[in-house]
Amino acid sequence: DIDAFDPGCVRASMGAIFQQKIVKASWSEFLSWKNDSGAQLIGTSPYSDTDYRAIQYHRPTVILMGGERKGLSSEH
Question: Which SS3 state, helix, strand or coil, does residue 67 take?
Fold first, then answer.
């Protein structure tokens, strides 16, 4: 678990976190919401063949970003 309002997270976001809606959910709850809402799901990777600027985004869009050291887990 990550505390989005941990001082280190707030500092790393340079305060941008206060402009975002923060929701905590299990992976299955998140997937259920995603399917019900029709949200576009994007995962980041330094190994991708697709440049993020080449994607056609639509609303709502969720961008999953992994940690600096490990990236996204294989299950996500």
Answer: strand
